[in-house]
Amino acid sequence: MGTGGRSPLGHKEEVRPGVWRVAVSCGHRADGAQRRVWRTVRGTARDADLEIARLAGEMGAEPWLGDRLTLDEYYWGRFSPERHATTTRANAASHDSNYRTHISPDLGGLDVGSITNTRIARWVSSLPPQSAPNYVRTLRAVMAQAKFDHVIAESPMEGYRFRMPRGRSTAPLPVWGAAEVVEALSRPAFRSSQLFALWDVMAGGGLSRSEALALDWEGVAWSEAGDGHWAAVVTIAGACTMRDGMKEPKNDRRYRRVPLAPLFADPLREVAGSGPICQSMRHATAGPVPTGHRLSPGYVPKRWRALFAPGAPLEGLPFVPLGRMRATYATMAQAAGLDSTIINRIQGRSPGSQVLEGHYLNPELGTLARAQDAVARGLWGGLTSNF
Prior knowledge:
alpha+beta; about 45% helix
């Protein structure tokens, strides 16, 4: 039987050695019932008393704590307005869409505090396999914010990894290998095309498409590399997306300077100008002429696909979405022997980020063959040393 006790602020009970359940009551909810909140504390009786004091202070300062509130009421009344005020339009709109279509129908009418990790696991199993991680990510953000706002004492998703529905493809998306990149660089028609500079800084510098679209020629610094070649350093200080237009990078790590080797800097220098590196075009008698205005992100996919049409500059090369050129760079960098810490630094991610392996790297057969050769050489060396 656990030991317990009361104080002027609340109640505590030791449910097992070193684990306490504390409760505090303060005021009344909107439905007239008493506001009461429980928490679990590990430690001594003094730790439990300190938690009671903290909880009592929180309830006095936070009118939400202990109130009965449905997930819908919390999301649309607190979470969504705050996201729209503090993050990008794209981020807030994505959460709104995810919540409206796949979270609210199943969980929206439930009291926020009554949602358990078991209930969430059942919900996850009913989601569309391919997009399930997006909806889980949104709900995880909502529950974490609800804890931060003192609407709930603990998030039922904190510390849990939910099993995704079967049927979701985890195969890496395609990238170009070194042969395709060199072939594209060797085609004059592509090097003079509207999207070449955009592709060049992505495949040669690892920029994302939104970062490359936001880049101006004034953000490229040139230096002579000897023997008539050029080197360049690209300064990333923004991003350009369809929903948000021009915006600041996602985080401080995305503010960075990225060098370009002569292989990519030389052809980029040939087309260098002023203003955005990727501009919309107007038709003229002598052919398309840059307008000086940044090409809208919405036009990029169609223009890129057109480059692979019969007779177009990239005819014969395997079609890979332009956005995968960032992954192409990462995969080539890995094949060249770069450590993942360096690749993440170049691409603006934290050193231990799992995004690189989960979404970007797709080693080609040649890389795998070299790895197998290295294993064989090691084994052969071990065998010969025994004789």
